[in-house]
Every structure is written in C-alpha cells, then in structure tokens.
Amino acid sequence: MDNVGNLWRSRRAEYWGMAIKYLRLIANSGFLFTIYLLFIFGSYYYGEFLLWLPEDFPTVWVFVALFSWLVTRGRVRTFVKDADLVYLPPLESRMKPYFRSSILYSWMMETFWLALPILVLAPLFFHRLSDSGTLLLAILALLSGLKLWNLASGFEEQRFQENSKVISHTALRTVLNVSMVVALFTFQPLWVVVILALILLVLYLFYFNKINDSHAVKWDRLARIEDNTVMTFYRVANSFTDVPQLKAAVRPRRYLNRMFKGMNYDQKNTYLYMYSRSFVRSNDYFGIFIRLTFLGSLFLSIVTLTWGLWVISGLFIYMTAIQLKTLKAHFRTSQIIDLYPVSYEERTRAHLKLMNVLLVFQVVVFFIVSIIAHGLTEAVSVFIAAALVAFIYPNVIMKRQSA
Amino acid sequence: MDNVLEVSGLTGGYQRSKPVLHDINFSIQPHEIVGLIGLNGAGKSTTIKHILGLMEPHEGGVKIHGKTLAENMEAYRSKMAYIPETPLLYEELTLWEHLELTAMAYGIEEETFKKRADELLKEFRMEKMIRWFPSHFSKGMRQKVMIMCAFLVNPSLYVADEPFVGLDPLGIKSFLDHMKKMKEKGCGILMSTHILATAEKYCDRFILLHEGRIVVKGTMEELRQQLQLPNADLDDIYVAVTEEGRHG
Hints:
Strand content of chain B: 15-25%
Radius of gyration of chain B: 18 Å
Strand content of chain A: under 5%
Number of strands of chain A: 0
Strand order of the largest sheet of chain B: 5-6-7-3-8-9
Structural class of chain A: mainly alpha
Largest interface: A-B, 25 and 28 residues
Helix content of chain A: over 70%
Order of helices and strands of chain A: HHHHHHHHHHHHHHH
Number of domains of chain B: 1
Mean pLDDT of chain A: 88
Shape of chain A: flat
Largest sheet of chain B: 6 strands, mixed
CATH architecture of chain B: 3-Layer(aba) Sandwich
Low-confidence stretches of chain B: none
Helix content of chain B: 40-55%
Oligomer: heterodimer
Radius of gyration of chain A: 26 Å
Number of domains of chain A: 2
CATH superfamily of chain B: P-loop containing nucleotide triphosphate hydrolases
C-alpha cells in the first residue's frame, strides 16, 4: 500500500526536521570548538599512546567486547508515537512495507555507528592486529551484515508479551554475536565464518520469521522504544542548547540536598533557594557543570605547554559561565514568581551569587589538579588565568549586558 | 471601613486598541467573600490579572489597602495570595520546599511557618507527601499545594480563580471551611467560579461580568430586586443576565 509508504516517509522527514534543527544549534555552539581541540590534542597523543601501550595489551578482546556490544545493542527506529496505539493497529496487516523501511533505515544508521569506531580504532588495528586495509573493510562489511540480522531478528523479538522472553532472546543473540565477532577479529578461516552465517540465516528464516504467525506487534513497546531513542537524542542535544521537550525530567539528586543546608531561612534568599535547587535538579545544569569541570581537569593534567594550560583553564571557566548564564531565564515562564513581594533586582543578585560560588569552586578544582599534575609554580599561573575569567565574565561582562 | 480591595474605573486588556474590560468598579471590605461570576471569556481572568498586577490598566486602577502597585510593589504584593485556575508548581521543588519557599518569599517568621505548615498539611491530608515532587501529584494534589501556599501566607486579600477544579469532596470542604475562618478573621476574598450552588452558599456578594462589563452586582437580595426575579437562585439570575446580553 502506497499510503503506508507515505506515512513512513513523512514520519522520517518529521524526525529529521526536528533533529537537523538541533544539530545545527549544536554545530553553532561553542562546544564544537572543544571537539576541534580534542581532535588536535587527540591525534597527537594517539600515536604516543599506541607506542606506550604494553605488549601484552589484549587488543583483540577490546575489539571483540566493543563490537559485540555495538552489534547487539540498538533497536529498529519505527517512528511510532503514543497516539498510534489508537490508529495504527487496525492497519497492522498492511504495515509490512512500513516495518521493512524501518529496518533498512535503522540498518543504514547503525552501519554508520559501526564505521565510526572502526575508523577511530583503525590505527590500533593496523598497529597490533594486521596491516591489511582490505581485511578491515571486509570485517566492517560482515559486521554490518550481522547488524542487519540483529535488527531483523530483534524486531520479531519485540512481539513477545513477556519481558523475560525478550531478554532471553536478546541473550541468545548476544551469544551468537560474540561467536561471530570473535571469529572475525581472530581471523578464522573463511569456512568458519560461512558456517556461522548459515546458522544465523537458518535461525532467522525458520524461527524468528515465524514469530509473527502467532504474535502481533506490541505497539506500546514500539512507542516506548521510540520514545527512549528520541529522549536520548534530546538529552544529548540538551548539553548544547535548551530542549523544551525535556523540561519535565527532574532528577531529585537527594544526596546533594546537604549543599542547601548552608542557606539561611530569610526573605533575601528566596531566589537563591529557587536557583540553587533548579541548578541541581533540573535540565542538567548540574550534569554540564560536572562534565566541564571533569573535562577541564583532564585536559589540565595531560597538557604540558604552559600557555596551553592558561588557555584551557580560561576556556573551560568561560564555557561553564555561559551555561550557568541560562539559569537566569529558568523561571521566566512562571507566573507565581512574579507575584512574590521580592524585587526583581534580588533575582539578578541571587543568580550572580550562585554563579560566583560555582565558578570559584571550579577555579579551586583546576588549581588543585594543576598542583598535582605540574607543581605549584605552574598551578599559580593556572589559578590566575581561571580566576580572572571567573571574575570578569559574571561580574563585568554580564552586568554590562543586563544594564 | 478601609477597603481591602478597590477597583475603580478599570479599563484594560492585552491591547490598548481592543480593551477587554470596560469601566469595572467594585470593592471588597474585610469580612467579605465576593463571587466573580461570568461565562467563559467574560473577562474574569483578565480582571484577576489586573488585580494581581500582572497587567497594566489602560484607565482607572486597583488599590489594595489604599495603595497601588506602582506606589509600593512589595507592600502591595505581600498583602495578597493567589490561587490560580491551573496549579502552577515548580517541577524541581518538593511539596515541603514549595511551602518553605512561599513562606520565605512573603517574609514569614520561620517558627510561624513551621506551625502553620504542619496544620495545613494535616488538614489537607498531605503529610505523607512532603518529600514528593510535583510529577507524582494528581491534579487535585497540585491544587491542594496551591491552596496551602495561599493559606500559609495569611494575607488580608485572597484571590481564587476556580479553586475547586480537581479537588476531592473533602478537599473542597477543607478549603471552604478555611475560607470562612479567614473571613471571620477579617480577610477579604475574591473568588471566581462556575459552581454557582457553592458560590450562592458561601459568597456575601456577587459581581456578574458579561463581555467585559459588570452587568449587575450586590447581595442575592439586591440581585433579585434589580432583575425583578423575586424567588430566583443564582443559576436563574446567571441565565437571565446572559440571555439578556444575547438579545440586547
């Protein structure tokens, strides 16, 4: 049926329309700069790392573990929505082309996600396992074929009502995948691979493909899988920009409640009370803060150039400050906050205070990391660079912007 | 006696060229519950927004205890509590934190806050949920949070917009009992609602809005006299007024 094909294409277009909007925002954000930085430093240290790697490092098993996981994981993108639970089940018998398109589309995307780590790990492969590029490409092609088998079988798997059955089937696939991946990376003779492939083919044709005779599609599971996938994308996008669809997700993080103890019960602290809690619990401000602090510390401990240390400490403080700046607008849409008998200036003051506390914390962390990695003299210059940015951005630049 | 709330000659709305409210005049004295009645789109919510100070009047003004918002924002706001039609909660704060934050914002002493909060939680049967986040609340529980926040402040003016929506019968009773208690203590209360039987029972006076104008206002007796409907209840009066609007 052509309208089923149309439905699939419009769903895909709808998703990509949304995704491209966010991908563009991500590309434009300061974060891309970090990736460049990572790439430049990374490619230099990669060569060093390969030489440093001990002789007895289990390279094969790293490849096996990584690619077994990559091949087994991942579900078919069906673009099914909650509302489809009402409208699509009557069409189920005619939906075959829709699901076939979904499987092929997912295969394409997943092959990309297999090719990317192959590309990144290629130097390691050539260095330790084999210097044949043809062999690596052949392995990639076979992994991609294995992925297709997994997607097709995995789609039939979701037809089971009981989660336990789905899990046992996934376990079965994992065992088969590991055998195949081991065979590929230990360079077994061709007939071993052919026999394994035949087993998989027979299993699909005479077992997985028969499940649909007695089990209908479980629409709610498809909707949940799809929802999880989209949410994962939103979460990634949210590290770079504001994703309104994600707003509802609040993480209690009760272990951090102790941090609020230092704040007095006082009318003056009203907005600080709100900002500090939304920083910790909502929208992943906290996650970004921790990630940036961690990444900055990592760079500071690896890099040895003195001016590189200054740039990195300043840059990470700056990126953190930009992220924290958005916290100010967090309650913009709330009507209740506008009714509080506390003036608007107090809001600016509270936001600034929280920013200063958090940036000072980050400066101290960077200082300590630098002392450990490079000694006190280098650390003092890192401290000065970081403290300058931490002071100037909120207290001078932001003040001027709001004035 | 000193008016708690005084709305005089209020003309307002989102656009100056298209006012939604036309020359609204009314006041609320202490010890008084006033019902604000009207069809959807009659201008009830706009009136309330002007009273809250979320919108600026085109003409006329709103005074609380004789002071406008412009004269003293903090004094104006601290004398009033608002119960919105749809509960507006902070998703990242627990129930207890909503109460604490509200008390802090309105400058209530910590001891007083704790005493009042415990009483309210007990009264609205929410003690077990103080550490919950709003995502786990039903519609009625969310509304209870708003109501408790309002009573916690203990202001001299309450503005309630459709406060009963989603509340269970016991919740409605607790709410109305509290309202009566506040009224006896000398508060003024403005309540917008569509549940006319309840309004008739609890309100001292009524303001009937239609298409942005006050059509008729007063006690039940005064309404009956003005409309010449001697034995009418509030439902009859409401229908009569809106029908008249349609024909006229």
